[in-house]
Every structure is written in C-alpha cells, then in structure tokens.
Amino acid sequence: MGGLFGVISKRECVNELFYGTDYHSHLGTKRAGMAVINRDGLFARSI
C-alpha cells in the first residue's frame, strides 16, 4: 500500500509532518521520507 502525506501551513508544522510520515511508514510501505523547507525556500531538514 502506498500513499502520500503532505502539509502546507503558514505556521510551524514539523510535528504534523513527522507523525503523518511516521504513520504511513507503518502501513507496509517500502520507502518513506520527509523534507522541510525553511522561510528562505531552502531545505532545512530531509530524511
């Protein structure tokens, strides 16, 4: 089973992104990851 989870927000939403991605990773997916872009449009963190 595959899926896509994303968050768009004007406020900090890193926790929502983390827990949503973590939830999908336990559904039997082969790949999971996440990336966070800061206010300057640069990747702040990616896994």
Overview in brief:
It contains one helix and two strands.
Helix-strand layout with pairing:
Blueprint: H1 14-25, E1 35-37, E2 43-46
Antiparallel strand pairs: 1-2
Mean pLDDT: 73
Q: Estimate what percentage of residues fall within beta strands.
A: 5-15%
Form type: elongated
Give the total of domains.
Answer: 1
Q: Name the poorly predicted regions.
A: none
Percentage of residues assigned to helices: 25-40%
> Would you count the extended β strands for me?
2
Order of helices and strands: HEE
The order of strands across the largest sheet is 1-2
Helix/strand-derived class?
alpha+beta
State the end-to-end distance: 21 Å
Question: What's the main sheet like?
Answer: 2 strands, antiparallel
How many H/I helical runs? Answer: 1
Over the alpha carbons, how many angstroms does the gyration radius reach? 11 Å
